[in-house]
Amino acid sequence: MHRFMTSLARSMAVLGGIVLTAVILMICISVIGRALNTLLHSAPVVAVLGDFARTLLDTGVGPILGDFELVEAGVAFAIFAFIPFCQITAGHATVDIFTSGLSVQANRFIQLIVDIVFAAVLILIAVQLYEGMLSKMQYRETTFLLRFPVWWSYAASLFAAGTAAIVGVYVGFVRAAEFFGNRTILSVGGAEH
Hints:
Blueprint lengths: L1 H40 L1 H7 L1 H8 L8 H22 L15 H35 L11 H32 L12
C-alpha cells in the first residue's frame, strides 16, 4: 500500500511540475509577445520597418489572450498536485523548538494529531471544491476572455485535492499505526528551517 501511495503522490507531483512548467513557458511567451507588440508599435520601429511592422502585428504578435486565466487555473492545480508528495515524504516545514526535547512517543502523538487534522482539512477543501464545481456548472460560468467553463479549473483542482485528501488520510492511518505500534514507518521532520 505504501508503495502505491508513494507512487501516486510522486505521479501527481510530476504532473503538477509539468503543468507548472507549461504555465511558466506560457508566461514567458506572453511577456515576450507583449514586449514585441509594444516595440512594433513604437515610432522608431515603425519608421524603420514600415509596413513590415504592421505585417508582423497582423500575424498576432502580442500577449497570449487570457494568460492570467490560464495561470490561475494551472497554478491552482499545481499547488494541489504537490501536496500529496509533500505529505507522504514529510516535506512540510516544521518548527521543533519545543518538541525536540520531548520523548519519541510524545512526538509521535503530536505528529498523529497534526496529520489527522491535516487530512480533515484536505477532505474539507476537496468537498468545498466539489461544491464550487457544481455551482459553476449549474450557472454555466465562464472565464472573461477565453470563455472556457470555470468548472474545468475546479475539476482539475478537485482531482488533485482529492488525491491529496486520499494520501493525507493514508498518512493519518500510518501515524496512528506508528503511535499505537511504537514504531517508525514514515520519516518525520520536514524541511529544516
